[in-house]
Q: What sequence folds into this?
C-alpha cells in the first residue's frame, strides 16, 4: 500500500497540488493552441496582398475597412457562399495617410482603431511567459514523478512508494498459533509500547529493536503485525531489499525518510523484513559494497539516534542471522533475538486449528493426524494445505472438508498435483512400482523404520513418478544411530529393488541417493557416529534456518577419508537393502503386482499382503488395544474399592487419537 494513501487529511495535499498543476498545464496548452490556430488561419486563409486590396478597391468590391495599427481589416462587398461574411486582412505597404486617401476617394466606409499599447504589451509578455511556464511546469512534474516512482533515477530519495503502512493491523497474538516462547518475549515489548513511563521511571532502558530469526513462512511477519496490533500502534514495513539501489546514498536516504516518517507517527513499529539484505557484515577485504554499507551505517545511526521513550520500536526479520553485521546486534540495537522456528507437533496442530476456524470441517477430520503427516512443515505450508483442502471439497461438490481432502492437500503441497496426462509405459510402471514397494518393504522389514501411510505410482506435478508417504506414530526430536542406519537402508531400498528385479538401474533413484548421502555424511561429520572419526566435529551447519547446509571444517586429506567413509556406509546400507529384498522377493512381487494394478495402495492393504505372505498373524490393532484399555478403565471405575488405573495409558496423546486413516492403525511394532 502506498504510504500516501494512509496519510488521511495530510496525505491529500500533494495529490491535489499535482492535479492542479496538470490542469493548469492543460489550460495553458489549449490557450496557446487556440491562439496559434487563429493566427495561422488568419494568416493563411484570409490574408491578401496589398496590391490585391488596391485592385478590389478600384473595382468597388470593398464594403468597409477597419484600419488597425499594422494591418487593414477588410469586409468585402461580395458575400461568401452560404451567406457567411468573410473578413480579409492585408498589410499596407504604403503609409497610413495614403490608405485613408485612397479609401476616401473610393468612397469606402472606414474607421481607424486606436492602437492598444497595453494590450499589445500584454500579448507580447504572455507569448513569452506562457511557453516558459509550460516548460517549467512540465519539467517539475517530470522530476516529481521520477523522484516518487523509481523512474530513470531509480526513485532517488523518498522511501514512500514502497513503505507499507497500516494504521491498525487488526492482528493479535491469538492469530499466531504455537510460537509460545516468541510470543512471550514479544509480549514484554508490547508492554514497553503501552507504558513506556513505567520502565523509564525505574531507570530501565527500553529495547530499541528485536530481531525475529527463523526459516521462511514460520510467521515472523505475522508476529510483528501482532505486536503492532496488540499495542494498537501503526505498523510501518519495508523489505531490506527495498533499500538497496544502484546509486550510492539512495538506500541511506530511504532509511532517513522512513525513520522521519515513523517518528512523526510514534508510537509505532517499524518492521524491516529480510534485514540481511542491508545488514550483511561489512566486508573490508574486497573493497565492500559502498551503497549497502552506507545504508547500514545510516540504519545504525538512526537506531542510535531515536528516543525510545517516544514508543518507537524496530522489529526486523531474517533467516540468515549468521551473516548480519555484529554492529547490528550490539546492545542498544537489535539486542533481543526472538527465535521463530519450525513448529513442533503441538504447534502444527494449533496452526491448523487457527486456519481451520473459518472452514467447515466434517466429523472425519483429525487435525492431529494431519500434523503428524506434516513434520517439518511451516505455518505458511499448513495455511496453504487447509485452503487447498477447502478448494478440493468445493471441487468435489461437498459442503465440508473431510480428512481425505486434507490428506490429499498435504500431498498437493508436498509433491504437487496428480499429473494424469503423463502416461507411463507398462515397463516404466513396473519399474516405478518395484522401486516404491522396495522402499516400503525395506521399512516394514526393519524394526526401527517408520510405517508407510500410502504408496502411489500416479505421477505428480513436482516431478515424482511415484512415492511412499510416511506418517510417524509420534513426533521424534532425536534419532538413534540404529534409526538413521535403517533410514539409509530405506532410502536405498528403491534402487535395490530395481537391481534385483530388472537387473539394471534407472535414473529414478537420484533423489534417494542425494538424501541418503546427506544423512550418511551428517552421521560421520556432525553426529559423531562413525567408528573411524569418533567424536570429532568435521562440519559446521551454515544457514541453519534456510537449507541447513553443512560445510566441511577439516583438512583436505580428512575430507578424502570422509568421502571413503560415506561410501562405505552407503555400500553397507545398499547391501543390506538388497539382502532384505532378495530374502523377501515373493512379498516384493505380490505387493508390486497389486500396485501396478491399482496404482495406489494404502498402508492397511500393504500390511495385509505383507502378513499373508510372511504367514504372520494379524496382531491386535491399536484401536482394539485402546478399546480394551477403555473397558478396563470403566471396569475399574465401577469398582470403587480399587485404585484408579494408571491414567498415562489412556491420556497418552498418540494412543488416544483417532487413526489418521484406516490404513495406519494396523501398524503395531510387533508385526515388524
Ligand atoms: P515469515 O515472515 O516468517 O516468512 P509470514 O509471517 O509471512 O512468514 O507467514 C506467512 C503466512 O503463514 C501467514 O500469513 C499465516 O497465514 C501463516 N502462518 C505462519 N506461521 C503461522 C502461525 N504460527 N500461526 C498462524 N499462521 C501462521
A:
Amino acid at each position: 500500500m502506498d504510504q500516501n494513501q494512509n496519510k488521511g487529511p495530510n496525505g491529500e495535499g500533494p495529490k491535489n497540488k499535482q492535479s492542479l498543476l496538470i490542469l493548469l498545464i492543460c489550460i495553458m496548452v489549449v490557450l496557446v493552441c487556440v491562439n496559434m490556430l487563429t493566427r495561422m488561419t488568419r494568416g493563411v486563409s484570409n490574408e491578401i496582398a496589398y496590391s490585391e486590396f488596391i485592385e478590389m478597391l478600384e473595382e468597388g468590391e470593398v464594403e468597409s475597412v477597419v484600419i488597425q495599427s499594422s494591418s487593414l481589416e477588410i469586409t468585402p462587398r461580395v458575400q461568401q457562399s452560404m451567406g457567411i461574411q468573410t473578413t480579409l486582412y492585408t498589410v499596407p505597404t504604403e503609409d497610413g495617410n495614403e490608405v485613408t486617401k485612397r479609401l476616401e476617394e473610393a468612397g469606402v466606409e472606414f474607421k481607424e482603431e486606436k492602437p492598444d499599447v497595453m494590450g499589445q504589451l500584454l500579448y507580447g509578455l504572455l507569448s513569452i511567459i506562457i511557453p516558459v511556464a509550460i516548460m517549467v511546469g512540465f519539467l517539475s512534474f517530470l522530476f516529481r514523478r521520477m523522484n516518487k516512482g523509481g523512474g530513470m533515477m531509480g526513485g532517488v530519495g523518498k522511501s514512500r512508494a514502497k513503505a507499507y503502512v497500516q494504521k491498525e493491523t487488526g492482528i493479535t497474538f491469538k492469530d499466531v498459533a504455537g510460537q509460545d516462547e516468541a510470543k512471550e518475549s514479544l509480549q514484554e515489548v508490547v508492554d514497553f509500547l503501552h507504558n513506556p513511563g513505567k520502565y523509564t521511571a525505574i531507570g530501565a532502558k527500553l529495547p530499541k529493536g528485536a530481531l525475529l530469526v527463523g526459516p521462511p513462512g514460520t510467521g515472523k511477519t505475522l508476529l510483528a503485525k501482532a505486536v503492532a496490533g496488540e499495542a494498537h500502534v501503526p505498523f510501518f514495513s519495508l523489505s531490506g531489499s527495498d533499500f538497496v539501489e544502484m546509486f550510492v546514498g539512495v538506500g541511506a536516504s530511504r532509511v532517513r525518510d522512513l525513520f522521519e516518517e515513523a517518528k512523526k507517527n510514534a508510537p509505532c513499529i517499524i518492521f524491516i523484513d529480510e534485514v540481511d539484505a542491508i545488514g550483511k557484515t561489512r566486508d573490508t577485504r574486497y573493497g565492500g559494497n559502498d551503497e549497502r554499507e552506507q545504508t547500514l551505517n545510516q540504519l545504525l545511526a538512526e537506531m542510535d539516534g531515536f528516543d525510545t521513550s517516544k514508543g518507537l520500536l524496530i522489529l526486523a526479520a531474517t533467516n540468515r542471522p549468521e551473516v548480519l553485521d555484529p554492529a547490528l546486534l550490539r546492545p542498544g540495537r537489535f539486542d533481543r533475538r526472538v527465535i521463530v522456528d519450525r513448529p513442533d507437533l503441538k504447534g502444527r496442530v494449533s496452526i491448523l486449528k487457527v486456519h481451520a476456524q473459518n472452514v467447515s470441517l466434517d466429523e472425519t477430520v483429525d487435525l492431529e493426524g494431519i500434523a503428524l503427516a506434516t513434520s517439518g512443515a511451516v505455518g505458511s505450508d499448513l495455511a496453504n494445505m487447509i485452503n487447498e483442502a477447502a478448494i478440493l471439497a468445493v471441487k468435489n461438490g461437498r459442503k465440508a472438508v473431510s480428512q481425505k481432502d486434507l490428506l490429499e492437500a498435504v500431498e498437493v503441497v508436498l509433491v504437487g498435483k496428480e499429473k494424469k496426462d503423463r502416461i507411463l509405459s507398462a515397463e516404466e510402471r513396473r519399474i516405478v512400482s518395484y522401486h516404491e514397494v522396495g522402499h516400503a518393504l525395506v521399512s516394514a522389514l526393519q524394526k526401527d523404520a517408520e510405517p508407510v501411510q500410502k504408496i502411489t505410482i500416479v505421477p505428480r506435478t513436482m516431478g515424482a513418478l511415484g512415492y511412499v508417504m510416511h506418517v510417524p506414530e509420534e513426533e521424534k526430536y532425536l534419532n538413534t544411530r540404529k534409526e538413521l542406519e535403517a533410514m539409509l537402508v530405506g532410502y536405498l531400498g528403491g534402487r535395490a529393488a530395481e537391481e534385483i528385479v530388472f537387473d539394471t538401474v534407472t535414473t529414478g533413484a537420484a533423489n534417494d541417493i542425494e538424501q541418503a548421502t546427506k544423512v550418511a555424511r551428517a552421521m560421520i561429520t556432525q553426529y559423531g557416529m562413525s567408528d573411524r572419526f569418533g567424536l570429532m566435529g568435521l562440519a559446521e551447519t551454515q544457514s541453519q534456518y534456510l537449507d541447513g547446509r553443512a560445510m566441511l571444517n577439516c583438512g583436505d586429506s580428512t575430507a578424502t577419508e570422509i568421502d571413503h567413509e560415506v561410501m562405505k556406509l552407503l555400500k553397507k546400507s545398499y547391501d543390506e537393502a538388497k539382502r532384505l529384498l532378495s530374502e523377501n522377493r515373493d512379498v516384493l512381487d505380490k505387493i508390486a503386482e497389486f500396485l501396478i494394478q491399482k496404482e495406489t495402495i494404502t498402508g492397511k492393504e500393504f500390511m495385509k499382503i505383507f502378513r499373508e505372505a510372511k504367514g504372520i498373524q494379524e496382531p491386535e490393532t491399536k484401536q482394539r488395544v485402546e478399546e480394551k484399555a477403555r473397558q478396563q478403565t470403566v471396569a475399574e471405575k465401577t469398582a470403587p474399592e480399587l485404585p484408579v488405573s494408571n491414567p498415562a495409558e489412556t491420556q497418552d496423546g498418540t494412543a488416544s487419537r483417532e487413526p489418521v486413516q484406516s490404513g495406519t492403525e494396523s501398524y503395531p511394532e510387533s508385526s515388524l
In short: DSSP finds 24 helices and 15 strands in the chain. The mean pLDDT is 77. Residues 144 and 668 are 72 Å apart (CA to CA).
